[in-house]
Amino acid sequence: MKIISVADKNEMSGRAASIISQLVRRKNDAVIGLATGGTPEGTYSKLVEDRQKNHTSYSKIRTVNLDEYVGIPRDDPNSYHTYMENHLFKFVDLPAGQHFLPDGNALSLSEECRGYDQMIEELGGVDLQLLGIGRNGHIGFNEPGTPFDIGTHTVELTDSTRRANARFFGSIDAVPSQAITMGICTIMKSRSILLIVSGENKAEAMSRLLNTEKTDTDFPASVLISHPDVTVIADAEALARTKKKAGKF
Ligand code: PGA
């Protein structure tokens, strides 16, 4: 795991965006796994700035998002479809048929999940998966206790995740109780992973991750230590409780 320690969220966003835009320029038909939430907002703004300044083209890129809520309309202001439109898709030349999110309103959620993994395989697999981390160590919506060997599936969101996301919905009661998420097995098949972490509310999770010596389903992010190509970009607040290890970061 390569750790890049940066001063703040702005620098984290800039570094992450530059890794993504370099990939887009190097491999113009790359498959990029995208994430939502508070952490990647700045990364997407920097990608939009780069698009405006350098005209980086996304015309052949394909994107697959990690997750989507179950049971809220696709055009709900809080759906991840809407989030992606508003933060990235409407500002870049990525054709509508080339960005994919799970359909949280599918008639059969289990078929939707199976089909999502199959679609990722048909695209040739993910070149780079962007990830955030939850305070409880979740990645995507893979909450503690999720087995590491399952693909895309439907999850019941934990109270702590619903509380954390209530800030977007106005109240915890409005936060859906289920979501579809890429499974840990799906995430681990990505050829590379970029984990971005900012803020002191993630300091405990970061300390736990960077001191992890063996994987543990109680702390889903621990699986990342067994992936061959993971880059973590974390800011000073997120690293505040992690003791600097000589040579590590
Ligand atoms: P956040 O969520 O970026 O909104 O903090 C990250 C996550 O829960 O994976």
CATH-assigned fold name: Rossmann fold
According to CATH, what is the class? Answer: Alpha Beta
Small molecules in complex: 2-phosphoglycolic acid
Name the average pLDDT.
Answer: 96
Shape: globular
**Biggest beta-sheet profile:** 7 strands, parallel
User: What is the count of distinct domains?
Assistant: 1
Helix content: 25-40%
Low-confidence regions: none
* CA distance, first residue to last residue: 10 Å
Whole-angstrom Rg: 17 Å
Structural class: alpha/beta
Which CATH architecture would you pick?
3-Layer(aba) Sandwich
Strand order of the largest sheet: 1-10-9-6-2-3-5
Structure report:
The protein is an alpha/beta fold and 249 residues long. The chain has one domain (2-244): Rossmann fold (3-Layer(aba) Sandwich), CATH 3.40.50.1360. It has helices spanning 9-26, 41-54, 80-87, 109-122, 159-169, 184-188, 203-210, and strands at residues 2-6, 31-34, 62-65, 67-69, 99-100, 128-131, 153-156, 178-181, 192-197, 230-235. It has a seven-stranded parallel β-sheet, with helices on one face. The chain has a three-stranded antiparallel β-sheet with strand order 4-8-7, covered by helices on one side. Helix 2 (41-54) links the parallel strand 2 and strand 3. Helix 1 (9-26) packs across helix 2 (41-54). The protein is globular and about 45 Å long. It binds 2-phosphoglycolic acid (PGA). The site of 2-phosphoglycolic acid has 6 residues, from loops.
